[in-house]
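In practice, a research group might receive sequence data for several interacting partners and want a quick structural hypothesis before committing to experiments. The following worked case mirrors that situation: the sequences arrive first, and a predicted assembly follows.
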Amino acid sequence: MYFDSFSEFLNMGGHGLYVWMAYGLSAVLLIINVVQPVMHKRQLIKEQMRKLRREQKTS
Amino acid sequence: MWKTFVAWFHRMGSPKWFYEISGRWIPWFAAAAVLLIAVGTVWGLAFAPADYQQGNSFRIIYIHVPAAILAQSIFFLMAIAGGIGLIWKMKVADMVAKSCAPFGATMTFIALFTGAIWGKPTWGAWWVWDARLTSMLILLFLYFGVIALQSAFDSKQSAARASAILSLVGIVNIPIIKYSVEWWNTLHQPATFKLTEKPAMPAEMWMPLLVMVVGFYCLFAVILMLRTRNEILEREKRTHWVQGLLSKES
Amino acid sequence: MMNDATPRLAQKKQHIIRREEGMQVSSWHAFTGTLKRDLLLVFRRRSDVVNPLLFFSIAVTLFPLGISPEPDFLAQIAAGVLWVSALLATLLSLDSLFQQDMADGSLEQLVISPHPLAVMVLAKVLVHWLVTGLPLTLLAPMLAVMMFLPEEGYSTLFLTLLLGTPTLSLVGAIGAALTVGLRRTGVLMTLLILPLYIPVLIFGTGAVVSAVNGMAVAGHLAIMGAMLMTALVMAPLAAGAALRISLNG
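A structural hypothesis for the assembly, expressed as tokens:
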């Protein structure tokens, strides 16, 4: 461990705001990039299932 | 060796095969990505020594550099996949090319944004018309162009081909742009700040960086496969195997 | 009946022969044919020549009004302002490159003709340059006077525009070809093309600035020439491929 205490770790030698802002925003963007295709797949399957059911009803 | 490669290449062209194999690969890549990025982040944030000049703000490097590397190699992959789709009319290649663009743009944006944040404590300004930052900004515009062109066409095939041409033109232009921007910057202001002109990093500094770069590549692989699978589901929804797959899921 | 039919048959045969000869017309003839046709069309629609020039003049006029009329200050930004305005004027004129031909169907004729499409695209780009790039280059020194560009910069400004505007027309043709089949093209084409114009802008402005500062400009001009040659070889091919895609979709 490079830092002596947890508060020092958060403070980052006075640069805490910059470091945590950079990491925080990147984490948010990465999570969005993972969640979006997963949600999109769910939506695609739901749509497709609805269409299938409708076709089965009419036939 | 060559024959097995060609056979693999041909099988890769089948959406069904890609869907099945990527389904098996995703968990492994996802686990590797989570593990590597977690280890790299903790290592880089808490254990790596601070830079003797920049202090702790240098820890931003552990996302800035992987994002910048990914931003460029994703554009490269997008152009190659687009070219393969254009020449051999391979559907999967088209879909891979399309799936590259959003994550590539995100990586470029992260590289720019973290660069700006890093610039504030280091250079005293959020934005500097540094050659590398500027060429990254132009790369972001190129990504936006490809995404905009993708969504402008009604036909998926035309969209894929048009953006393949645009990304190939972009790949030819990227070295020219980089060279000219670097040249322009040295003319206007002598290189006052250069990230590269630091003494070579000690191992305990670059090891976490390496871990992060590999982790980012794994994450990219996961997202690329997820997006490509969605494209396959959407475009092949009329086929028998997708319908069968759907009835199994419900 | 026979007397009547024979000459008609002969006529028909000759017609067919002539058509076959027509098929074998060389690429050079395809080039000059497209060139002549497009020049004639432009001659009939003279606003296509005048409008970009007007845009160029107005855009340049905005800078002294918007920033400062101070001669020393204008002299500093003159090269950049002239180049950026020339770039935007070229960009706005690109719509006319394929749009008209798309609307009247002659673009499809070009695409299905047996001649290499790149050659005919090159002819079209040449016409586009003759009616926009060349007039812009000729007009620029006059506007440079109004922008107080130092005297040492004039010849370089002229030369860089002479070398740079054909590159702009060539690269722009790719964007115009990619978007020709779409309904709303204006902003999209700007988004696609402007990033690709940046190297031309940097070297064009850089050369003029060096000339004003009394430095050598041969290096800049050589690089601009190299960019022109690269674009000359690759852009017509890329634009041709893009046209085929746009017409299919």
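Before designing any experiment, note the following. The mean pLDDT of chain C is 86. Chain C has one domain: 30-248.
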